[in-house]
């Protein structure tokens, strides 16, 4: 029987590429996003994952046809840009609701199902930026850091089961993420610096890796017998190296490198 996979955020970008690839490989794929893409081969259940009732209904629909869920990929997420000083409580809560509370709710829904067969995997899509407080992306970096830490905690809590969880921390990927970011207002004192950084960050995404090359990497993690590590990193060599550089040099030096790399 083919394995059942739930992926959130499948109407575009990484989730869409992943859904189509895994479907072509013969998996039983359910995508959860608010809009239904026209170019998806897999089934989409239109769902706003920040609404618990909609998630409950989607899971019920999946369970009506499948007795188990083999893999949950918490992929849906948004970026947020702007100065820390200018972010509103609503913007921050919207971001953390989508990037943290929603994937956590999905985890709480699939764990009891996975526990019945004592098997399953959960991949939380994070960012290499979770380990670096990037300029004008403080809340995005913070939301992905929180996702990393929640994942680490959950690994201890699942240690007596065969249910495994990890994060997959991406570098820049060529998707429409820039168009979907929450953008705070920018007060005058920040405009010059913000514009420089904003141009850089958008160029980085536009020149990022193609989303479809992530899919085989993720399938390998799903099928491997070897226990999952807490975190996997997928990006260019320089993006992956940045994590090590941060650990090896004084942070004030590292800040200078990031400032230059960001266009400041
Ligand atoms: N692209 C990068 O450079 C990059 C780098 C590091 C990490 N990531 C992470 O990779 C993941 C995918 O991003 P992407 O680049 O593929 O961005 P994207 O093209 O903007 O895709 C985001 C997906 O999330 C879905 N989504 C947003 N709000 C939702 C909601 N309330 N309920 C259900 N689905 C929702 C969107 O679908 P609807 O709008 O139709 O709901 C869309 O399918 C994100 O977690 C992102 O943080 C991306």
Automatic annotation (TrEMBL):
It holds the Pfam family adh_short. The keyword Oxidoreductase applies. SUPFAM superfamilies: NAD(P)-binding Rossmann-fold domains. GO terms for molecular function: oxidoreductase activity. Keywords: Oxidoreductase. Belongs to the short-chain dehydrogenases/reductases (SDR) family. This is Short-chain dehydrogenase. It comes from Apibacter mensalis.
């Amino acid at each position: 029987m083919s394995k059942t996979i739930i992926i959130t955020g499948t109407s575009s970008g990484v989730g869409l590429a992943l859904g189509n690839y895994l479907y072509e490989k013969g998996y039983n794929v359910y995508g959860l996003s608010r809009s239904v893409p026209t170019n998806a081969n897999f089934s989409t259940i239109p769902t706003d994952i920040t609404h618990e009732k909609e998630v409950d209904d989607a899971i019920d629909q999946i369970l009506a046809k499948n007795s188990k869920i083999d893999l949950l990929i918490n992929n849906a997420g948004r970026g947020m840009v702007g100065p820390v000083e200018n972010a509103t409580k609503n913007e921050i809560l919207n971001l953390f609701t989508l990037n943290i509370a929603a994937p956590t709710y999905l985890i709480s829904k699939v764990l009891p199902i996975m526990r019945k067969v004592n098997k399953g995997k959960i991949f939380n899509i994070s960012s290499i930026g979770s380990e670096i407080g990037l300029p004008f992306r403080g809340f995005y970096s913070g939301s992905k850091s929180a996702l990393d830490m929640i994942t680490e905690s959950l690994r201890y809590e699942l240690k007596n089961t065969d249910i495994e969880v990890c994060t997959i921390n991406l570098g820049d990927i060529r998707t429409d993420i820039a168009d979907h970011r929450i953008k705070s207002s920018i007060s005058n004192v920040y405009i010059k610096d913000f514009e420089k950084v904003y141009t850089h960050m958008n160029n980085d995404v536009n020149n990022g890796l193609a989303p479809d090359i992530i899919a085989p990497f993720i399938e390998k993690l799903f099928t491997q017998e070897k226990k999952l590590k807490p975190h996997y990193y997928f990006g260019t060599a320089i993006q992956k190296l940045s994590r090590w550089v941060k650990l090896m040099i004084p942070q004030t030096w590292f800040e200078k490198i990031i400032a230059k790399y960001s266009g400041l």
